[in-house]
Amino acid sequence: MTELRDLNTSGYSPDWCPGCGNFGILTALKRALVQLKLNPKDVLVVAGIGCSSKLPQWINTFGFHGVHGRGLPVGMGAKIANKKLHVIVIGGDGDVFGEGMNHFIHSLRKNINVTLLVHDNQIYGLTKGQTSPTTMHGDKTSSSPGGNMDDPINPIALAVAQRTSYVARSFSGDMDHLTNTIADAIAFKGFAFVDIFQVCVSFNKHNTFPWFKERIYDLQKKGYKPDNQEKAFKKSLEGWDKIPIGVFYKEEKPLYEEEHPVLKRTPLVKQKIDNISIKKLMDKFC
Amino acid sequence: MALDINRLSWLIGGEAGYGIMTAGEKFARAMVQGGLNIHTHVEYPSLIRGGHNSFGVRVEEDEVTCPILMYNLIVALNKDTINRHKDFLTAGGGIVYDASEIKLQEGEIRSDIKLYDVPLMKLVNETKGGIRVMRNSVAVGASMAILDYDFTCLAEAIRGVNNRRLKGSKIAEINVHIAKKGYDYIKKNFQNDFEIKLEKRPRTKKMLIRGNEAIALGAIKAGCKFMSAYPMTPASSIMGYFVRKEKEAKVVMKQADDEITAINMALGASFAGVRSMTATSGGGLALMTETTSLVGISEVPLVIVNVQRPGPATGLPTRQGQGDLKFVLNIGHGEFPRILIAPGDAEECFYETFNAFNLADKYQLPVFIVSDKHLAASYKSVKEFDTKNLKIDRGWLLSDEEANQWVDYKRFMNTDSGVSPRAIPGQKTLFRSSSDEHNEYGNICENPDNRLIQDGKRFRKLDTALSEIPLPKLYGPQNADVTIVGWGSTKGAILEAMKYLKEDGIKANFLHFVYIYPMHVDYVKRFLKNAKKVVNVEENVTAQLAGIIREFTGFKIKHKVLKHNGRTLYPSEIYDGIKKVYND
Which of A74, A84, B370, B528 is deepest in the core (most CB within 10 A)? Predict the structure, then answer.
């Protein structure tokens, strides 16, 4: 039985700024794994680069820290190799929606059972406060001192437009909601995307904890059901006065790793390779 | 000219869409069916319809290693083919064409050339189910008659007697019928006096295989279960073969949305314990660059194939060149160990790909296979690969049992060999791998002493690997008047050029670099210092291998034969170049 303390890394702890939203997400992820009774040896946490992407370093499962923006394809490759693993991909808004946007969009249509958690603090942290793809229009940042002239992308709307099998949003300041959403996303059979709003105490002076607290409301508490793409799309366009969190859309679809004729049964990693015969293959060249 | 038996250089040409490739393949297969050996050479522009395609087949009784510049018999399905190739016809050569479609002016063709006017289209139209594209079959049938070859060999080749996909199909029968019409037309209307004849020999079991297929087959034999790739000429047929054999070979090919995705997916699968690969050409490899560096520091085994085409940028997408050697040798930011292998023919594509997977696993690093368009697209008749002695070696990959008993597991443990014990997700040896510099456990660590330990450990793997990396292969005598230095696919043409030199009484040997990096520096230095005249042969502008040899050994190769016009290097060009050096 996995307990919360089993997931702590001994003698090695996060180096995030005090008060960073990442702490909440890390704790929620650990709680979700415990809640789901997952064995740490069957969990692989993959990340790109950025403050949030250091997360795999501080959770006692398997972890892979890659290059900027490329967590998703690494995670998907690992899942194809061993479908028994629970693969969780971590990235920030810069990592997933900036450098890794092409991987994000294409992952939505692949339906490989991987969970994507985006730490969305609407700013670049590790490089000191530049505009990110989700920085609000007009916000002053270290790379937009006169105010951000670009519009932010809307990741939830993008995902819903693509009929992604699981689309949710949560907030790092709501531990219970976040834990339950992450657990639900991991348990969901299919590609699951959770956009997690979080504060950046060092660089984002606009989207602060009180700012979120005033605006956030729980979709599910309002009786919203995530079963209709059009409804979900409309919901995804709401904001910034009232920011909905919760599950926007959910639809079980055939899984790549369940449908592929070679992956159906034995995971690839368990297939024997010691004595593969290529006789028949060679005959076809004769 | 005297009658020549079983020594032929044949070519068919026409627009893309005329069935040039199929016809060439059938011709080649008919040769192998009759116990002869072939090597093919295809040229085509980067388009789907139109342009000029050609497919050359060289036939010999013994092994054929390369194409040659000249042709004995040309099949022209359009006028353009004649215009382009007539100057490359040997004395007394022939042209097969359809005078109803191709008008030749008086004196346009040399008087020594035999013209075989065959009403290709008329013969097609006479046949029920015949369509225009089948002119190619008539022409191949006619060629068989001119060469006085057994028609049944062609019929067998078309019917696909050995499990080919056309076996027993109606289309195959129509094609056989149409080819026979071409054959009969020649026999009836022309004298049997062409100066080359082909005779059947006892048939030994031979494969007709291209380099790309041999690479894919080597990977399958090596237990590569996962490939991810993005289409790019001339690498695409590797992923093509892999995906066609998914069910039969129990492998998975996932087409990626770009090359960055491709290499990262393959990396993820390998991290999870599955032998994996990706394949691309120069431009795609450029996109993979950052991740190759990640593979290096993460110490994940990965086989990365670069099937070269000439750059820069889009360059000559469907043509030949060896311009990426230094790129691959230096690919990736920062410093990390790698192994670089450049197979020289279809056989080496197979065996060295198999070995690449062992090396990747044993030394936990990226292994690059550098091939090129010439290897990728040329068929060669080869014996079935001998797989008896091919043993999988996964290096220090922990079994579940070993891993589960391991106490205080360090994924990046500092060892004498530089190789660390490798666990995979699902085992009890939890660890975190970081692209940041890390300590032995894999935790991010910026301590300067630790940096030296990890850098040292990573590069020590190369010293360890070198003990099993083969020396450059020497062809010809130990001592020679001329020593040729080359790498990769120029092997075939160089071996042939050596035969010509021998006929001239020039003693040549050839140091062929298949394993280019890490390099056996002392051996190479000693060998070259003791050589009389050294000539570097490459298909690039800047003599890249010579540059690398100079960098590592200090030895400067003065003489060079370099070709970089996007076309394959021919043995006669190498011969001419070396003669010049020799006579200097």
Answer: A74
